[in-house]
Amino acid sequence: MSFSNLNRRNFLGAASALAVAPMALAQSVKRDFTPGANPVRYPDPDIISLDKRFDKLKIGNTPIQRLATGNLWAEGPAWNGVGNYLLWSDIPNDRQFRYLNEDNHVSVFRKPVGCSNGNTFDYQGRQISCEHSTRKVVRYEYDGSITTLAEKFNGKPFNAPNDAVVHPEDGSIWFTDPGYGALMDYEGIKVPGTSTQPNQKEAVYRIDAKTGVIEKLTDEPFKPNGLCFSPDYKKLYVADTGASHYDKAPKNIWMFDILDGKKLGPAREFTSMTLELNGKKVAGFSDGIRCDTQGNIWSSAGWVGEGYDGVHIFAPDGVRIGQILLPEICSNVCFGGPKRNRLFMTASQSLYAVYVDAKGAHIS
């Protein structure tokens, strides 16, 4: 390509092609994310294509940015379109933060918050949070009061609800209960005798929006964690972090067919988190997941190290097509911004973001 023909469109295309960098190159780049540091050279070397399908989803002239830091374990990002802000949890510090899109301002949003983990918004704009220390799923009402949506199942308290999504057709709330907040005081309140085994079998649940009835949808994953719907709401994806406590648990993402809008078919593996890195097969955890409008799954990835930790992107057929490398373990992701084309990533102590050529399939 000659420089005379290198217009903006051609430049961005060339930049995307150049971003298909060897993984070793990306690992060798040491980023300084502090304000005022030297900017990264485009295309960002830590946005990596593993498959041509990812080339259409990344942008050649945009960087990974760190928007905030100082948390102990950041989780549960959720975008509020009306307020034009991002909300997320700092679980051990029992607080929620808010990032304002218009001026990058970050402040404490609420404290205490029951050591909340996952957050989302329903289709009436009300915030829903999964609380570890109270072992509840709650909703924040317009007047500031808090409504308990789920507290017990079959007469027994939940372990520690983790992540939640809302179905747009009937307003039902689907959530996971892997139990981490009940296993340690650091992220909740440890329940005596639950050092390895939670209060009741880990499972995925559904709260009926009209009746409030809670149904168990499946307990097939060892520890169901993050979850999201496919764009057409015919499938549910569930990240399994059971390998943290169970030797036989796979490090993968499950996929379920949704039957009659409220039941799940049998579990089948959507993808494995195993990746060949520097000649060795390694596997970390998928924790939080979100789907874009094209059916690609954007998954947090961590607990391996450089070259792995960050975000892994999977095509609808389960093939890993790209990576976004971060200097910290990524816990969760969500799409946000006015165009829903900005990927927000909570990662250990920090909040990161990057613009992509994809849009989130759901409101949060």
Strand content: 35-45%
The class by helix and strand makeup works out as mainly beta
Helix content: under 10%
- Name given to the CATH homologous superfamily: TolB, C-terminal domain
- Inertia-based shape: globular
**Measured on Cα atoms, how large is the radius of gyration?**
20 Å
- Mind telling me the CATH class? Mainly Beta
**Oligomer description:** single chain
Q: What ranges have pLDDT less than 50 throughout 5 or more consecutive residues?
A: 1-29
The tally of helices reads 3
C-alpha termini separation: 41 Å
Number of domains: 1
Question: Major sheet: size, sense and barrel closure?
Answer: 5 strands, antiparallel
Mean pLDDT across all amino acids: 91
Biggest sheet strand line-up: 1-27-26-25-24
Beta strands, count = 30
CATH architecture field: 6 Propeller
CATH topology: Neuraminidase
Walk me through the topology.
Elements: H1 8-18, H2 23-28, E1 47-49, H3 52-55, E2 65-69, E3 74-80, E4 85-90, E5 95-100, E6 106-110, E7 116-121, E8 127-131, E9 136-140, E10 146-150, E11 152-153, E12 156-157, E13 164-166, E14 173-177, E15 203-207, E16 214-218, E17 224-229, E18 235-240, E19 252-259, E20 263-264, E21 268-272, E22 274-277, E23 280-283, E24 289-291, E25 297-301, E26 310-314, E27 320-325, E28 330-336, E29 342-347, E30 350-355
Question: If you had to describe this structure to a student in words, what would you say it looks like?
Answer:
The chain has 364 residues and is mainly beta. It has a single domain (3-150, 223-355), classed as Neuraminidase, CATH 2.120.10.30. Helix content is 6%, strand content 41%. It is built from three helices and 30 strands. The chain has helices at 8-18, 23-28, 52-55; strands at 47-49, 65-69, 74-80, 85-90, 95-100, 106-110, 116-121, 127-131, 136-140, 146-150, 152-153, 156-157, 164-166, 173-177, 203-207, 214-218, 224-229, 235-240, 252-259, 263-264, 268-272, 274-277, 280-283, 289-291, 297-301, 310-314, 320-325, 330-336, 342-347, 350-355. The strands form eight sheets. It has a five-stranded antiparallel sheet with strand order 1-27-26-25-24. Strands 17, 18, 19, 20 and 21 form a five-stranded antiparallel sheet that branches. A four-stranded antiparallel sheet has the order 2-30-29-28, with no helix packed on it. The longest helix is centred in the N-terminal third of the chain and has 11 residues, at 8-18. The chain is globular, with a radius of gyration of 20 Å. The termini are far apart.
